[in-house]
Structure formats: C-alpha cells, structure tokens
Task: structure prediction
Amino acid sequence: MRSRNPASIDLPTARRHGGRVGRSRGLTLVEVLMVVLVMSVVAAMLIPQVGTDNTDKLLGAAEVLAAELENARGLAIANDTHYRITFDPAGNRLYLEHSGANSAFDPLPPSPFRRYDDPATRQTTVLSELPFPAPFVVLQTVVSAPSANPTTTIEFSPLGNTMSRQETFIWLGCGSGSTARYLSVKVAPATGLVEINSPLAALPTGTGLVTN
Result:
C-alpha cells in the first residue's frame, strides 16, 4: 500500500491501487471508462484540498501521476494490447500513447485529463499546469532500480505488467533550499502496480541528481 499524508489529503478508498485494475484481462472497455470517470471525480476532490505546502503539492501531483499510470495499465488489460507512458523532464510533462501493433487502438478513449491541443492518439499531462500555487512540482528524473539507469518510458502489457524487469521510480520535486521536498512514485515490474513513497528533504544517491 502506498504512503501518503492522511492529515492533508483524504482520498476515497476507491483510489487504493491494486483493486479492480489489478485483474488480469478482467476489464471491459466500459469498466475502463468508468475507472477514468472515477479518477476525474477524485482529481476534482483532491486539487482544491492542496494548499501551499510543498509536501501537499507533491502528494497531489503524485496522485495525478498514479492515475495516469493506472489508466495506461487498465487500457492495456482491457484492450489486450500495449500502452506506454513517456516522460519528458525537460518539458516537465508526460504523455500516454498506444504502443501495440493494432493501430485501431491508437485513438485514445475520452479523458478529462487530455489537453485541448492533444491529438486523438496522445494524452499529455504538464505538471506545471496543475492548479497548484508556485513553486510548481517538477519531474526530476525517472530511473530503474537497482541499476539506477535513467529511462524515459514505462510500457504496460496486456497482463498489466511492465516491459521492464526492474522497478521504475519517477522522482518529483517541489521547492528549493530548506523548503525543498522530493518523493518517488514506484511502479512494480511484475504487476504494474503503483506505490507513492513518503516525501524526503533530499534526493537519495542513485537518482543521478544533486539537490541544491
């Protein structure tokens, strides 16, 4: 079960990872669309509760990121194909695309997370556009563990697992100096399930980054 700050963000139990989305080949397209609808409701409940504290903003952004990952995994299971999340730290963004062989699945289903200028085949999330006050949450890096190799993608298979044999850690940061906080979102390779780890005051060794 992922870690979060219960005093600052109170989310419904429907957002706990590893529930309905965790069944192998058990989701229909209707169920996936219902999952997307639930995520949009949860996001609408979450964002107004996020204050000016950097830890709260990190946890809020991590929940949005986890929802995107769960969406990709659920689509892969429901449609029996592959979906990929690509990370762009330079642009402080990530995007979802179909990566399987059947181009009929290239157009993505409707989603409240899609930007107005996204094509039908891509869904983009820009962290600096989340409705949180400055300083904004930043996508620091994405690494595999234990090798600590940088990566830019997570791809989900029809079984819900990732195509990597290693855990993937997506590191987010917010603030600078003594107020800087960081946390990682972990994706397990065998199951594709997501875990939000506790915020830290500094990035640990092995991320390839140095804190200020």
Notes: The helical segments are 29-46, 54-79. The longest helix spans residues 54-79.
